[in-house]
């Protein structure tokens, strides 16, 4: 009994399903050929009379008269929905209509296909004439002429820049949407890129297997002579260019001038805004040093960490460096002032003495050793403090009888106990002699800024990100989940932020 009921239900379902797909007899009798289109709530009849095609709506009313060589219903993905449209051919030319029979593109080209760029929410028409491709607006205005072997609309999400990637005689170039050829078709690859930090728009290009960079006006600022090249930026958003040859990295400015030659495992540009001072952090064999922007290495690559600091009051610059877990100081020329023998070192300013000085702190199980040095590195005062002593200690300099008091030693102890004796820690001295972390000091704020070396990831890629990926119609997929790099590489904790992702 159950089997009979099931068979009956199936029969009823098939009947009504087939009934819904039936073409009304009055339409069948009127036309030589009838084809039913039914999809996504649309129902249309493609009909033929006297060798010509037309279109009827769901009620059999004429949408397009039977005057076309042929027609078919197509669709393009637009946002969350598909946009259906009608491609027609008349006298060897293709035109476009919407699903209700309204003309949306004239009969000008041998072929016409509606396209939708989802990110920019832009409709355009890919067209073909004389076996060449171009791009038109919906009103038929030609924005990219039909002179290319390929023409694709592209959109850079970061810069919101809409452009066309074109191909001619087997080479790639880039056109603006007004049709102006800004980068000629002379490259194996040409792709628009955008550095979000610097707001700098540029094109990465490839020629004879080597990479370079073009401005958007087509000027080649970095010739195609490098294994790898891309634009980066400082924490302040100042753009610069990283270049690579023989698996070694260097730096260029935006004019193409080499700042640091390609001889290091890693390079990055740093900038101290208050002093208008540029320098480069370089590394070799996982050790770090400092270069000037004419390529002179003022601090050799022998340290676990290096950084240039600025004394807030007078704006003096000095180099902090870490060797074997100990910290020392060099001047801005790279001359060592204080050897790497201390848990903590810094520069401070004494208001009463109207002079700067360095101080250093070291400790063992029982005592803290506090030393003062002049800017030449000569010891001017030292004091040993037992860990069991009071939180406050007063002392006088041998050279200045009324030198400011060093107070709040408990803060120093707390800093050391928390392991903040790294280079990123910064202590400032007021005229009263109080030593403490100032919330408004530059170094304190740097602890809350995204690390420019690892871009907040906390990791140190073993190789720099390549500027280009193999490209046909779409970029490659399959990037590192940590940094987005598509090359073979490894990860270690960032030496700049110690894996925290911020400074």
Keywords:
about 500 residues, mainly beta, four-stranded antiparallel beta sheet, about 10% helix
Mean pLDDT: 77
Estimate what percentage of residues fall within beta strands: over 45%
Number of helices: 4
Shape: elongated
Q: Strand pairing plus helix content: what structural class?
A: mainly beta
Number of strands: 40
Share in helix: under 10%
Indicate the low-confidence ranges by residue numbers: 10-20, 390-447, 462-482, 486-491
- Cα-based radius of gyration, to the nearest Å: 35 Å
Reconstruct the topology from this structure:
Layout: H1 2-21, H2 25-30, E1 33-39, E2 42-49, E3 52-56, E4 62-68, E5 70-78, E6 81-90, E7 93-98, E8 103-109, E9 111-117, E10 122-129, E11 132-136, E12 142-148, E13 150-156, E14 161-168, E15 171-176, E16 181-187, E17 189-195, E18 200-207, E19 210-214, E20 220-226, E21 228-233, E22 239-245, E23 248-252, E24 258-264, E25 266-272, E26 277-284, E27 287-291, E28 297-303, E29 305-310, E30 317-323, E31 326-330, E32 336-342, E33 344-350, E34 355-363, E35 367-373, E36 379-386, H3 409-417, E37 428-429, E38 435-436, H4 442-446, E39 459-461, E40 491-493
Antiparallel strand pairs: 1-2, 2-3, 3-4, 5-6, 6-7, 7-8, 9-10, 10-11, 11-12, 13-14, 14-15, 15-16, 17-18, 18-19, 19-20, 21-22, 22-23, 23-24, 25-26, 26-27, 27-28, 29-30, 30-31, 31-32, 33-34, 34-35, 35-36, 37-38, 39-40
């Amino acid at each position: 009994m159950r089997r009979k009921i099931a068979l009956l239900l199936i029969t009823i379902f098939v009947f009504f399903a087939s009934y819904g797909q039936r073409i009304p007899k009055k339409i069948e009798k009127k036309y030589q050929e009838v084809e039913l289109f039914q999809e996504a709530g649309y129902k249309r009849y493609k009909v033929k009379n006297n060798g010509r095609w037309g279109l009827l709506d769901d009620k059999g009313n004429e949408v397009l008269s039977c005057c076309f060589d042929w027609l078919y219903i197509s669709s393009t993905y637009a946002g969350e929905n598909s946009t259906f449209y009608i491609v027609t051919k008349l006298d060897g030319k293709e035109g476009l209509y919407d699903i209700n029979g309204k003309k949306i593109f004239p009969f000008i080209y041998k072929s016409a296909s509606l396209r939708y760029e989802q990110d920019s929410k832009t409709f355009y028409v890919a067209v073909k004439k004389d076996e060449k491709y171009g791009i038109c607006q919906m009103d038929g205005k030609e924005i990219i002429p039909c002179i290319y072997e390929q023409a694709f609309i592209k959109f850079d999400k970061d810069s919101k820049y809409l452009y066309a990637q074109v191909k001619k005689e087997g080479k790639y170039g880039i056109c603006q949407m007004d049709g102006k050829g800004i980068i000629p078709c002379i490259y194996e690859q040409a792709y628009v890129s955008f550095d979000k930090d610097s707001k700098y728009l540029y094109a990465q290009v490839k020629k004879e297997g080597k990479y370079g960079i073009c401005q958007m006006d087509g000027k080649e600022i970095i010739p195609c002579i490098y294994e790898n090249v891309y634009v980066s930026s400082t924490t302040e958003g100042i753009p610069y260019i990283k270049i690579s040859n023989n698996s070694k990295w260097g730096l260029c400015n935006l004019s193409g001038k080499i700042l640091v030659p390609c001889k290091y495992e890693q390079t990055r540009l740093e900038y101290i805004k208050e002093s208008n001072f540029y320098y480069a952090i370089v590394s070799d064999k996982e050790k770090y040093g400092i270069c000037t922007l004419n390529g002179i290495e003022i601090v050799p690559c022998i340290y676990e960490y290096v950084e240039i600091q600025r004394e807030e009051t007078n704006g003096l610059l000095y180099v902090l460096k870490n060797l074997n877990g100990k910290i020392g100081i060099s001047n801005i020329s790279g001359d060592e002032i204080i050897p790497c023998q201390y848990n903590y070192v810094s520069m401070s300013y004494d208001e009463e003495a109207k002079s700067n000085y360095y101080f250093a702190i070291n400790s063992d199980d029982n005592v803290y050793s506090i030393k003062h040095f002049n800017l030449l590195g000569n010891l001017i005062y030292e004091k040993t403090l037992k860990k069991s002593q009071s939180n406050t200690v007063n002392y006088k300099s041998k050279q200045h009888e009324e030198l400011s008091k060093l107070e709040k030693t408990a803060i120093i102890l707390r800093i050391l106990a928390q392991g903040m004796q790294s280079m990123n820690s910064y202590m400032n001295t007021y005229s009263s002699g109080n030593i403490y972390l100032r919330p408004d000091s530059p170094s304190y704020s740097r602890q809350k800024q995204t690390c420019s070396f690892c871009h907040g990831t906390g990791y140190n890629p073993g190789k720099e990100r390549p500027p280009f990926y193999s490209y046909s119609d779409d970029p490659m997929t399959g990037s590192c989940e940590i940094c987005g790099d598509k090359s073979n590489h490894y990860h270690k904790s960032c030496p700049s932020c110690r894996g925290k992702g911020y400074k």
